[in-house]
Write a structure and sequence with these properties.
The chain has 560 residues and is an alpha/beta fold. An eight-stranded mixed β-barrel has the order 13-14-16-17-18-19-20-21, surrounded by four helices. A five-stranded antiparallel sheet has the order 2-1-5-4-3. Helix 8 (174-181) runs antiparallel to helix 9 (183-199) and helix 13 (355-364) packs across helix 14 (368-382).
Amino acid sequence: MSVQVIQQQNFKALVDNHPRAIMLATTEPRIAYVNHMFRTVTGYQSGEVIGQAPSVLSSGLHSREFYRVMWQGLNDNGRWEGVIWNRRKSGETYPQWLTIYPVEFNAQRFFVGVFMDVGDIAAGNERLASLAYYDPLTELPNRSLFQEFLKARVSQREASQSTFGVLFIDLDFFKSINDLHGHQRGDSVLQQAALCIRSVLRASDVVARLSGDEFAAIVELNSAEELEGICQRTTQVFRAPVVVDKREYFLSASVGAALFPRHGQTGSELLQNADRAMHMAKMAGRACHRMYSAADTEEGHYKQRLSEALVASLKTAPHEFSVVYQPQYQLATGEMAGLEALLRWHHPEFGAVSPADFVPVAEQRGHIHELTEHLVRCILADLPKAAEGLPSGLRLAINISARQISDSRLQQLLDVLFARIRQICWLPEIEITETHLMHLSAECLARLRDFGDQGVSVAVDDFGTGYSSLAYLHTLPVHVLKIDRQFIKRLGGVGTDSRIVSAILGIADALELEVVAEGIENGAQYRMLNDLKCHRGQGFLMARPATWDAIKLLFFDTCQ
């Protein structure tokens, strides 16, 4: 195309005042025309670039593979679009959103490049509104643009000797702000949170809002060791409240980090692994950061799959749940004192899953009530409706999560179970772990007192593992202490466990509480506990957990 053709008035009227930068190049390639916005963005005047190769704008940061893929896409699809780093006349590198496509004019073939500086947030609201690549609330790049930035940054590997990290940032407890104060106030908090994240990173780092309360960042590093400090700053910035309209809102952030190229060779791998690390930070208690670890991720992936399987089974597969019963004995006489009902879950993929794994998952996912529903359902299916053929006065204990005590549905569920237990002339008992019991509200403690008034024994499970003081224990509406098995396991050894067990029994005696020892596995433990005047015990030495049919056959058929 000749310069005369390029300067035709119709052509200039069409493109010279276009709001985006435009460059036409011949197939050699040589720059044949640039518009006014091109000159504004790049700093080059027309005479300085016309006739030059487009590589005059190159930043030198992209690999040969990057350009090969670009031209391959252009040839295959007739168009290429994405983020590319170029260099201004001043020497400054900057990211463009560039679209390239071929055109035919006067029987000649040309390439048109249309671009804008996507790193310049102040470039105008018209640009932000016209692009689908920015989050309108925070004016940060959105997920699509961030992924393009990440792809382009990875492609610089051959040209750039520096490394970089990817952060995945999730705001903890943000949903409660929306729920309590409305989405308008929540949006304002998100805007301030974005500023907080931006404040602890450098201006050259890319920060994006991926969705909702999730953010991500590409952070440039002089060394891999720098990433740890950046993660710490990102979590610590939220230790101070976020202030909106003179009101304080308390958030925290869980941060996951992945390092290029150690934790991923592509942008998608890096973002995915940073996300996985963030979930490990969530599992560690939130308000902290975690670096990507393949071993941690494998464990986290297993827990996630287990969590999803549990929710599905609770809703659709009641046959996967069953109950076994572990006998308890009066240690002084060897007579059976009662049974503890234990829920079991057998999944077709995971097999028999330990309660130590699935109960915490149910609590975290908010499905502990459904788990208790299955426990009660299975017990009701086992227990007869009359006491005929059963010894009277036995205890039947079930485990209750502290999270359920304030659930209004619990009372109705347990009323049915307790009625059946009393129908066979047995006594109901509920167990709550010591650690959870220490954090119950006054309302929950009042509910436990109501259980006691109804003739239901309340037992402190895993006693000795928490931090209850004698004064506090005295005020709790409990009747039984269950000594954790870790103390029973080492009874008679050179440690202090014998004295701990003796002290617990002394406390219980002073408070007129009954004591149950868990995990009795040998005769020496049994004899020592009996000598210490422990009331009840359970463990493999006496009997393993068994189904109701096996319990009847072994223990109750002789009563008929």
